[in-house]
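agent> Task received from the user: take the single chain below, predict its 3D structure, and emit structure tokens. No templates, no multimer pairing.
agent> Plan: (1) validate residues, (2) run structure prediction, (3) serialize to tokens, (4) report one or two observations.
agent> Step 1 OK, no nonstandard residues flagged.
tool_call: predict_structure(input=
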Amino acid sequence: MLALIQQNFGFYVATLVMWGFLMAFLFNLVKKSAAAKSDTTLMLMSLALFLSYLLADPLLSLTLGFEIFATSDGYLVWALFDFLTVLVIFFISKNRTLQEVPAKLYVFTGLSTNMAIFLVMYVDIQYSEPYVYWWFWDFYTVTVNLIDIMMLIALFSNKDFLGLVKLYRRIRGQAEPT
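)
tool_result: status=success, residues=178
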């Protein structure tokens, strides 16, 4: 019974996150509409994330009759969607600096981390014997959801709220912009 609740709860959390990316897109669309000559980067990044999450949504897949997310192959599909989304967002934001769009670093970091976790989950479920529960599954559940929330906050605020841009600049030896 608990496993059924956890599985269904996971589907609804994924849908809620997808809805969050839609709201981020609409928020940035309205912001762009209010200032006619403003930058479209955040709006397009939000749209790319929403479409990626929409296409990879487990409830949508079940509705359309695809059962791929019922197997470990679903993790490969999610990793592929994250990789393609990183490429799309790279092209969308390539002419914008981290000072202009700090959300870019948060989205790249989030998608890259999610992609790595999806690949580890795939390898774990596909190749580990016997199929025994372990701590990484809880880590996966919490981390993926926290990263999705982090990306949502970044798309809404476009601020360096966790200091990732400062850390990135410090690691690269770059001076703080004035």
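agent> Step 4: summary for the user.
The chain has one domain: 2-172.
agent> Done.
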